[in-house]
Amino acid sequence: MDLTLTEQGFLVNSDDWNEIVAMKLAAQNNITLTPAHWEIVLFMREYYVRFNYLPNTRIFVKAVANKFGIEKGNSRYLQKLFPESPLKYACLIAGLPKPPTCL
Question: Of residues 42, 63, 65, 102, which has the active-site annotation?
Answer without folding.
Answer: 102
